[in-house]
Recover the amino acids of this structure.
């Protein structure tokens, strides 16, 4: 039972890996948002 | 080699490997400058280093430790060693803490602990000092279980300072209170003291390590004034489709939208990260019944999660604002997401227990009843059923890669968000000028804002390094400590910065009259630079470069 459960977790992780890489490849990987206020610590 | 030492070594190697993968370009020569992460070459001790420059002592003693290390090593190397240490310490600590005769479950837990949204987001917001405390947490729990070396285990958090120490206290005190005594009265390992004695001892050691920043805070002439606006600005926020609480449960939920890895909101990845943490927590609760620290760490997780989620509701935010209004020291709870650290630790241990159970190692549960100092030979079934264990062992081994798979964009410096850059030559020239001038007078840094987006730093937001870079004996570097978050403005805690800000609102401020000998302009729009040049038209331009302009005010104008 635990083995099946672990296999499922690994399957979901592989799916997440593929989906994330696909999404980032399609939308770009700019980590630093552009056009942010010049002196802000960050935005919520 | 004893089993614990082997586990620690394997964890350290894994931590180093994951650190290399996570930091990537940040390990090249230069300085990583992002948000609160500010390191400078050849830093000098100053009043700022010890929290005596006017603002709250947030960099005590972390800046002093970095400055001391930088006396014998290049600053670039000091920064990289610290960042690597976060991964190595955290991974090796969890590897030691998980009771398992096999290495794979320990390494699965270690990988989860150092590769998750908490670490990614705190790295991206530059809070290396907090992460030092996070990395030391498993060692603190381990020391509490053994009843010795608590002070040594607290050194990473003590180096980190107030945030690291508070996160550690939230974990250590419940563990000390609810620690299960060793089953054997004469056992060499384990703390045989009663709960009150353990809590008292832990509290005293924690309190002693807090003195470096508690004393300067207590000595402030105007006390600690916290701005309740900070509660709104720094409250946890939803960075996944599961709301704020779901994001916190995924170990994310940091307030700053800029401190989140690329592609973090992608639904399948978000589901996988939430699932992994929930599975880890469930496994900890179900399989960790025999762990001596189980109840304490569970309580720490509940407390940490409650603090992190306090700002979710209007009532919670109002309560926090009231507390901050009563005493500014309570502002330490405004950036609340950092308190989910104990949840990360217990979920990591749970992942390890699950992997051990899957590998059909009865020791995963049986050994859990003992202090985590188990030797593999004590586990009767460790060498049996090797054939049956093989596929499950492979699965357990694969769990090491799962944290990376569900958060792949943490890799390679979060896809370039963390990168090392050199300081411009003009910065060095300006520092030499400040150092060589015997005339007295302080240094003002313009624009009078706390954060910058330097072109030479790839436009990354960073706390202005000028305060540290231009620290030279005999001069105080005055920068602003007002913090802007979107439309919110968190007020200054430094009376002199407040005074300077008031004077700068005038059309032609008398900067020499304020005690300044030099003015540094290290950023600004074209309009701002023109305005500063107009204010300083009578001053001598000592360094003039695209990255920085240094003005020297005429001595005759200095009162």
């Amino acid at each position: 039972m635990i083995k099946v459960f672990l296999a499922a977790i690994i399957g979901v992780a592989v799916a997440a890996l593929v989906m994330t890489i696909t999404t980032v490849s399609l939308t770009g990987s700019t980590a630093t948002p552009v056009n942010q206020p010049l002196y802000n610590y960050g935005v919520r | 080699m004893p089993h614990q030492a082997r586990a620690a070594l394997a964890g350290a190697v894994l931590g180093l490997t994951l650190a290399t993968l996570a930091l990537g370009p940040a390990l090249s020569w230069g300085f990583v400058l992002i948000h609160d992460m500010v390191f400078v070459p050849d830093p000098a001790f100053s009043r700022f280093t010890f929290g005596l420059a006017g603002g709250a002592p947030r960099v005590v003693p972390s800046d002093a430790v970095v400055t001391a290390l930088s006396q014998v090593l290049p600053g670039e190397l000091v920064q990289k060693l610290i960042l690597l240490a976060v991964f190595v310490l955290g991974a090796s600590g969890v590897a030691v803490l998980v009771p398992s005769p096999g290495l794979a479950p320990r390494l699965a837990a270690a990988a989860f602990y150092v590769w998750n949204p908490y670490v990614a987001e705190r790295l991206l917001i530059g809070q290396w000092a907090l992460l030092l405390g996070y990395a030391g947490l498993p060692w603190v729990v381990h020391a509490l279980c053994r009843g010795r070396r608590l002070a040594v285990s607290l050194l990473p958090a003590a180096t980190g300072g107030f945030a690291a120490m508070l996160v550690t206290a939230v974990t250590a005190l419940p563990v000390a209170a609810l620690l299960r005594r060793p089953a054997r009265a004469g056992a060499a390992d384990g703390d045989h003291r009663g709960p009150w004695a353990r809590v008292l001892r832990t509290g005293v050691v924690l309190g002693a390590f807090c003195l470096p920043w508690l004393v300067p805070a207590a000595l402030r002439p105007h006390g600690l004034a916290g701005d309740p606006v900070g509660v709104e600005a720094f409250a946890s926020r939803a960075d996944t489709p599961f709301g704020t609480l779901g994001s916190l449960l995924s170990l994310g939920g940091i307030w700053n939208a800029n401190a989140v890895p690329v592609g973090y909101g992608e639904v399948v990845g978000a589901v996988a990260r939430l699932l992994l943490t929930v599975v880890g927590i469930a496994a900890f609760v179900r399989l960790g019944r025999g762990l001596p620290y189980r109840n304490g760490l569970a309580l720490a997780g509940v407390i940490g999660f409650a603090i992190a989620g306090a700002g979710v509701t209007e009532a919670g935010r109002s309560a926090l604002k009231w507390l901050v209004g009563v005493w500014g020291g309570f502002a330490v709870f405004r950036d609340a997401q950092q308190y989910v650290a104990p949840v990360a630790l217990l979920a990591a241990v749970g992942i390890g227990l699950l992997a051990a159970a899957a590998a059909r190692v009865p020791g995963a549960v049986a050994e859990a009843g003992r202090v985590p100092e188990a030797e593999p030979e004590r586990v009767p079934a460790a060498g049996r059923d090797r054939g049956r264990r093989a596929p499950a062992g492979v699965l357990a081994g694969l769990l090491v890669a799962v944290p990376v798979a569900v958060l792949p964009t943490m890799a390679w410096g979060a896809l370039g968000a963390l990168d090392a850059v050199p300081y411009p030559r003009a910065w060095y020239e300006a520092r030499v000028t400040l150092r060589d001038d015997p005339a007295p007078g302080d240094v003002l840094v313009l624009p009078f804002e706390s954060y910058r987006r330097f072109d030479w730093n790839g436009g990354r937001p960073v706390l202005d390094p000028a305060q540290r870079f231009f620290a030279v004996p005999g001069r105080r570097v005055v920068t602003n400590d007002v913090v802007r978050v979107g439309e919110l403005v968190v007020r200054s805690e430094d009376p002199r910065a407040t005074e300077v800000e008031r004077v700068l609102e005038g059309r032609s401020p008398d900067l020499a009259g304020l005690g300044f000998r030099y003015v540094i302009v290290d950023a600004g729009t074209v309009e701002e630079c023109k305005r500063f040049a107009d204010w300083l038209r009578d001053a001598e331009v000592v360094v003039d470069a695209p990255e920085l302009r240094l003005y020297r005010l005429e001595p005759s104008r200095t009162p």
